[in-house]
Amino acid sequence: MGLIDALLAAYAYLVANFDEFLGLLAEHLALVLVSVTLAIMIAIPMGVLATRNERAKSIVMSFGNVSQTIPTLAIIALVFPILGLGFLPALVGLFAYALLPILTNTVAGLENVDESTVEAARGMGMTENQILRQIQLPLAVPVIFAGIRTSAVLNVGTAYLAFFIGGGGLGVWVISGISLFNTPQLLAGAIPGALLAIGLDSLFGFIEGRLSGESMPEQSPAAG
């Protein structure tokens, strides 16, 4: 089967099973968005804490490294006796996998803010919390969002593993297609996943651009 024939067969399979596809896509998207959102809510505060205290930084970064090095399937296996099969254990595995890029980029972004700018803000009487909110975080937005975009793209691919624990998603078609040597089914699940990764990366890039434009200080304290 040539490439064009395979793509046409995959398209025909998708059209013939479009309702099932929408359900699997919704599950896949939910796994990715919820896991990345939870990772953002946890990793950014942890990153801020890490920049305020060296001991906390050592603990936080060690935690992030461990969460990234343990395979997602291993995390799923560990939580399976507690959470059982389905969406939730898959979500826990994806959440753990999404933490490190956001955490490391938050730390890097905050630490790379020009120290002279921070000192100038202190000289103007700004508190540490004001400096964080008004100076450091706005300037660190591009670096932080690079981590968020990395986590989102990685989790689109990792979410295919949810199939093994009944978590749904496009992995149902991809892994079943591999097992059954059904190339149209395999491609009908894999190609939308690749497009989803591109789409999410573009979406977060757009949000990054809006936040950078809206939250960037109009004038550096050093200038003023």
TrEMBL record:
The chain crosses the membrane at residues 29-51, 72-100, 131-148, 160-181, 187-207. InterPro entries: ABC_transp_perm/SBD (IPR051204), MetI-like (IPR000515), MetI-like_sf (IPR035906). It is found in: Cell membrane; Membrane. SUPFAM superfamilies: MetI-like. It is a multi-pass membrane protein. GO terms for biological process: glycine betaine transport; transmembrane transport. Residues 25-204 form the ABC transmembrane type-1 domain. CDD domains: TM_PBP2 (cd06261). Belongs to the binding-protein-dependent transport system permease family. This is Binding-protein-dependent transport systems inner membrane component. It comes from Natronococcus amylolyticus DSM 10524. The lineage of its organism: Archaea, Methanobacteriati, Methanobacteriota, Stenosarchaea group, Halobacteria.
